[in-house]
Amino acid sequence: MTDKKVPDIVRGHEIWLEHDMQHVHIGETVKCKVLYGHNMATDGVADIEGVKAAVFNPVSEKHDLTADCEDDYLVLRFDPVHDGYHIVSVEYDAGIYTVTDEGWHKGPKSDYQNVKTSGYYYQYAKTIISGHGSKDLDPVIGHELEIIPIDFRHYHASEEIGLQVLYDGTALPGAVIIAAFSGNEDDAFEMTTDSDGNALIKLDKSGNWMFKVRHADQDKCIEGQYDEKVITAIFTVMGVH
């Protein structure tokens, strides 16, 4: 199928995670929404076939999660067995998009003629849910592109959050972090990471925040398939107050 319009995932849509839990409680089911859109404004639903989810518990055990369809979003559920901080993560394989003289197509460049460019779009989203137990937390879970919080805690409006961007496990200097606030998606702003991949961002409003980085790597091309891999990492912080 040919589409003259640039696909949403190419022009900048992303997945992200939201929850309304103040704390994880043993025996109480945790529910996380997997949302799709741009800068915390929903616009459609992610393709469930491309979603792979997991939760990392306070003792660094990883457990796979199943995404279910519910209304206009996907949902993840798990029942915690440990007190403490949990990291919920999603990988989203959005597929290969190729543009030719005729327009945009979904599929590898080998399927088409007169190819201008082709990219493989892959996204990683995560959020952290607080708990009453140990606050020890390894925020690095090994995503290809990852935003990690420095000294994660409950945040108050007007505080700063420290973030580091890692790419293939190494600090990524010069990465542009886009910060967006739920309900004010048009007021998103940018910060660039320093030589250690770090950035400080002021949380000037209470509510839910998103931080995202997009990185294109031509070195990860596959001949006949795509010219570059376009990776997006998203980290959300709920309940700044």
What does this 3D model show about the protein?
- There is one protein chain.
- With about 240 residues, the protein is an all-beta fold.
- It has a single domain, classed as Sandwich (Immunoglobulin-like), CATH 2.60.40.
- Helix content is about 0%, strand content about 50%.
- The chain is built from one helix and 18 strands.
- The protein has one helix spanning about 10, and strands at about 15-20, 30-40, 40, 50-55, 60-65, 70, 75-80, 85-100, 105, 115-130, 145-150, 160-165, 170, 175-180, 190, 200, 205-215, 230-240.
- Strands 4, 5, 8, 9, 10, 14, 15, 17 and 18 form a nine-stranded mixed beta sheet that branches. Strands 1, 2, 3, 6 and 7 form a five-stranded antiparallel beta sheet that branches.
- A hairpin with a 5-residue loop joins strand 4 (about 50-55) and strand 5.
- The longest helix has 4 residues, at about 10.
- The protein is globular.
- The termini are far apart.
List keywords for this structure.
nine-stranded mixed beta sheet, 51% strand, 241 residues, Immunoglobulin-like, 2% helix
Quick one: CATH class?
Mainly Beta
> Which outline best applies?
globular
Main sheet? Answer: 9 strands, mixed
Q: Judging by the overall fold, what is the CATH architecture?
A: Sandwich
Assess the beta-strand content as a share of residues. over 45%
Please tell me how large the radius of gyration is. Answer: 18 Å
Per CATH, the superfamily is Immunoglobulins
DSSP E strands, number: 18
